[in-house]
Amino acid sequence: MKIIGTVSELKKELSGLTNIGFVPTMGALHNGHLALVKKAISENKLTVVSIFVNPTQFNDPKDLEKYPRPLEADCRLLEDAGTDIVFAPSVSEMYPEPDNRVFDFGNLSNVMEGQFRPGHFNGVGQIVSRLFDIVRPKRAYFGEKDFQQLAIVRELNRQLGFDIEIIGCPIVREADGLAMSSRNARLNTELRKAAPAIYKALSESKAAQKTSSVNETINSVIEKINKEEGLEVEYFEIVDGNTLQTIKEWEETNYPVGCIAVFAGETRLIDNITYDKY
Ligand code: AMP
Q: Are the CB atoms for 108 and 155 separated by under 8 Å?
């Protein structure tokens, strides 16, 4: 496995190659990331994994500062998984000059994460487009855990004409249901114990879907989670999985998805669940 820190070296290494699989990450890797990496390895001739904590997508400077960066341990995991190349650039390597580009993702970016994390998806657009441009992969792998991000990346790929196959991968969870996240490591014992209530409430709401309206579903999920000590729902919305616009009745879409953001103490966790089509 090669560990590369500069754009020029990576470009040299990849020149002339086709059939590249690409997994962009911010590091602090867990089995959710590794599932993407393993899928990429199984479907491509060569797999590149990037590790870069992108400052332009953080709207909260404290969150950026606290973000874990265990590069050595990450590289060991990636090597064991069979990764060919790790691209781990510095901030100045990725942004030799400030990136002033402004993206327009339409209504996809006005809601949910876009509403509560202003500028976040513009930063995602900046880094993902830059990485796509450098790596020029055939396929790129993203987790459904970041459901809205996946929709934004598909739109970015379409708008900029990269023609990359964007592959969404299912959410990988801990045994107790908590969606794996690099931020879970920040939870203290009590919050870690409380956090599985998020997925529990989502799963129960799916089980009760047939006998509940969209509104009742939303209220019951929020109520159950907020009852847990230390947890507070920032938003929970049920949307059409393609347009990301909220629905009022199940019949309005054949792809209903519930997307949630919850503060566990100061740590912000996201998750989602796909409901049945009516
Ligand atoms: P991050 O390092 O958080 O930017 O995540 C890098 C990629 O891994 C993104 O495409 C995420 O959606 C994906 N990912 C993170 N956590 C999970 C998970 N629990 N299950 C599946 N994919 C995940």
A: yes
By most ligand atoms within 8 Å of CB, the mutation choice from 53, 145, 202 for ligand 1 is 145
Query: Based on the number of CB atoms within 10 Å of its own CB, is 86 exposed (0-12), middle (13-18) or buried (19 or more)?
Result: buried
CA of 78 to the centre of ligand 1 (A): 15
**DSSP assignment, residue 75?**
H
User: Element (H or E) spanning 198, and its range?
Assistant: helix 197-207
For residue 278, pLDDT over 90 is answered with no
Ligand 1-lining residues (CB < 6 angstroms): 25-26, 32-33, 35-36, 142-143, 145-146, 169, 171-172, 179-182
Q: What average pLDDT is seen over the chain?
A: 98
Q: Which residues contact 211 (CB under 8 A, 6 or more apart)?
A: none
Task: Give the DSSP H/E element, type plus range, for residue 150.
Answer: helix 147-159
Give the per-residue pLDDT at 152.
98
Q: Following DSSP, what letter does each residue of 78-109 receive, concatenated?
A: HHHHT-SEEE---HHHH-SS--------GGGG
CA 153 to the chain's CA centroid: 10
Ligand 1, atom 10, lies closest to the CA of 142
Residue 40 has a pLDDT of: 98
